[in-house]
């Protein structure tokens, strides 16, 4: 079973930046897409963005466009989320997820990493 492990969360002031990373435990793992989601306790999980693993094409939620950038390193089997111009409303637990070719939805999830943006 492939495990996804996020890192890079923490506390940052409004207007600052953070870079999250997600590593797959199996370097031979080749997902169809990898995505980032976030969730505030008591609220629904929110899609942040995703990347097509082979082509590198990305899609983002409208509220993240221009501030967040997803990239991947195929050799290291890692995906990153660069977050700029962070605001307090970006405070959440951020999750990395992977969708395999045969799956209709994301079927591998990390445990999440906390991002807190102070005003």
Keywords:
119 residues, four-stranded antiparallel β-sheet, seven-stranded mixed β-sheet
How would you sum up this structure, described in words?
This protein is an all-beta fold. It is built from no helices and 11 strands. The strands form 2 sheets. Strands 2, 4, 5, 6, 9, 10 and 11 form a 7-stranded mixed β-sheet that branches. A hairpin with a 4-residue loop joins strand 7 and strand 8. The chain is globular and about 40 Å long. The mean pLDDT is 95.
Secondary structure: elements and pairs:
Elements: E1 4-7, E2 10-13, E3 18-24, E4 33-39, E5 46-52, E6 58-60, E7 68-73, E8 78-83, E9 92-99, E10 108-109, E11 113-118
Parallel strand pairs: 2-11
Antiparallel strand pairs: 1-3, 3-8, 4-5, 4-9, 5-6, 7-8, 9-10, 9-11
Summarize the structure.
0% of the residues lie in helices and 50% in strands. By secondary structure, it is mostly beta strands. The termini are far apart.
